[in-house]
Amino acid sequence: MRLLPKTGRFFEKFVEQAATIHEAAVLLLDMLEKSEGFENTGAKITDLEHRGDNITHEILTSLNQTFITPFDREDIHALSSRLDDVLDLIEAAANKVVFYKITGRMQPAVELAQIIVRCAERIKTAMAALERQDRILDHCIELNRLENEGDRISRVAIAQLFEQERDPITLIKRKELYEVLEDAIDCCEDVANVLESVVLKSN
Amino acid sequence: MRLLPKTGRFFEKFVEQAATIHEAAVLLLDMLEKSEGFENTGAKITDLEHRGDNITHEILTSLNQTFITPFDREDIHALSSRLDDVLDLIEAAANKVVFYKITGRMQPAVELAQIIVRCAERIKTAMAALERQDRILDHCIELNRLENEGDRISRVAIAQLFEQERDPITLIKRKELYEVLEDAIDCCEDVANVLESVVLKSN
Amino acid sequence: MRLLPKTGRFFEKFVEQAATIHEAAVLLLDMLEKSEGFENTGAKITDLEHRGDNITHEILTSLNQTFITPFDREDIHALSSRLDDVLDLIEAAANKVVFYKITGRMQPAVELAQIIVRCAERIKTAMAALERQDRILDHCIELNRLENEGDRISRVAIAQLFEQERDPITLIKRKELYEVLEDAIDCCEDVANVLESVVLKSN
After folding, report:
1. Contact between A200 and C63 using a beta-carbon 8 Å cutoff
2. pTM reported for the whole predicted model
3. Which C-chain residues 112-151 have CB contacts (< 8 A) with chain A?
């Protein structure tokens, strides 16, 4: 095993992790667009989160058994952890909808979930292009741009909430949903930062 | 000094830092079980937090004066910082109880504090076994499992709070206590992540 | 370019980034002291935040084009990111004031902003002294001390808020302002931690 490392396996696993993120992001968007059938969709997202945990575990175990890695051991660890964080935050957002019993379509939440889907698409493309390092920095720039857009949407949404919502408990619930959606987007930018660092080191 | 580094000192200091965390965790549990005499126990936890700061400072100063370190300089820095964070969060939880004047036994808070105590025991054991790298990954797996358990407890607790608590200010206080307890547990998992990375690099 | 790296450029850029942080910190303090003309000052802080983003981008691009760096590539990346975070949090504090329409002088918020200004001064001095590594650890100790002071002020402020403020929505707004101001101070301590690590490695 150590003498014949299959370094390509890491790239495959990252692609798989990104696909799981994308699948969860699409379900989250669906949940927020429909505002019904939450428990069912929430359970599917939790399943995907467990699948993601398994992939993360496989990557870390491979890292332990492989002598030569395709890029820095620490960066493989960091990239895998950040991808895991994105999926955790998507699940956390879904959990808020389910556990807080948030009902009624919230337009800014839908828009933030759309941004998460677009981030997930970019991450998927970047993971597929990581081995040949094709246009990775372009994807990073786009992830940064999407993060700025998400930031703007959530700021306006929270300001409006404080202006219009008179029930403090409803305000707390909705504000937290906006915040966790924004955290998920921020975390996609963290993925971009690790990718940027991988590219920087290899040049 | 530089010619005769006492590398064992780092391991001793980590054991000491872990013992301080454990002591603070036990006091926090006691505080939440009894729901009285907060100021007194809170002051003891703050003393432990200061002792922990001193140990952290000693580790960083040693790092500065030692030429050969038992494992990566950066990981010694990271491990010490994450242990420091755990203690900070235990103190933050105690401070919330004291400053928010939270009264009345909160069963989920007690359960979360019990998990913190169990995490602290694991961290103590792991620190004592770090020099000979004995079963470190097992302790990491258990810390991850405890984190999942804590996560589940705090989610259910917060969902119940939103269902049952009608006073928004009480809701905010209790929710924050659950969250900071969960943060402390998460931070124990971060300790596990650093340990995992130390083991990965040494293999 | 690669053959004749101008390593001094990194130090210049860090000085510039620190000056931008300081300028934004002074405006934030002004905003909190006056409690009027928020939109105008807020817009200036947002401009500074964009300028800071550009400097960060320039540093990362230089890093990409320079073969020999004055200190670890990873630490240049980390230092630049942490400085960027400080500026982001100063802007986030200003945005809370503007978007939440917080009015009326809040003495603890003014005190926290004063600490941010003092942190920014220290960071400026440290950045100017980084190339010759002059007294960097002293500045780190002072940044740690300022963080402790900020911590104490915000804890007391939040405890008082829970005792005195009966309107939950006002309580949420003010509590968040205290918290983001404290986060900005914490982030200055993170800058100190990177600097400490740079000094540790170079010794």
Report:
1. yes
2. 0.87
3. none
